[in-house]
Amino acid sequence: MSAQLRVNRTRSTTTKVRHTTAKEVPKKFLTKVHAGITAAAKKWNVQLHPSLDLSGIFKYEGYNSTRFGNRAIEPKTKNNYEGVIRQFWRFCVLKGEYESLLPLLSPRPNGSPAVNVQRLDEFLRFKRLTKDMDLYMSDSVTICKDVLGNQMTVEGSWKAPKNALIFRAGVHDLHLDCNHVAEYEEPVQVNIAVRLLEWEHHGRTYSRLDSV
Questions:
Q1: Which residues of the chain have pLDDT under 70?
Q2: I want to staple 58 with a disulfide (CB 3.0 to 4.6 A). Which of 36, 86, 105, 120 is the partner?
Q3: pTM of the model
């Protein structure tokens, strides 16, 4: 068998899966969350509140959310934040990114790390780019995989630019409450979301959201 045939056979057996964060993720992903969050908390030496549900289901708080601290945020804005953060939570569950779930918990463990900025980048690619194209990591070369090892494709359901803006603002306010804003404000607010929106406003079409 030639080297070319061996390469083609390898490619043909690669599994690509369509994922969505618009609804709850399959149970096979949820069953990994309890152990994943527990291990992440141990790594960061943070204490999980006894009342936390670690089943993998996002605790949606809506208009009365306390996830963003005691700052003066309108209830409607809180509800909007909860909606986009819930989808990011599901994306992290699919990816097996359990450390980034710690700051999303409510109540949040004191000393939780900031959200992984690469996951934020990948999530925006997942939601905003063309449906069913390969989902690439920030290097624009490596295809993202879920926690089960399947290659991921773009969901592409956030057609309106406002969704990225709401997500950007929600992550910003979340990190303000975590005292992580100095580390993450620039990558999240400028390099990812705003750059994407600038491209859209100029009427350009890109197959990938390239890193800045």
A1: 1-14, 181-212
A2: 86
A3: 0.80
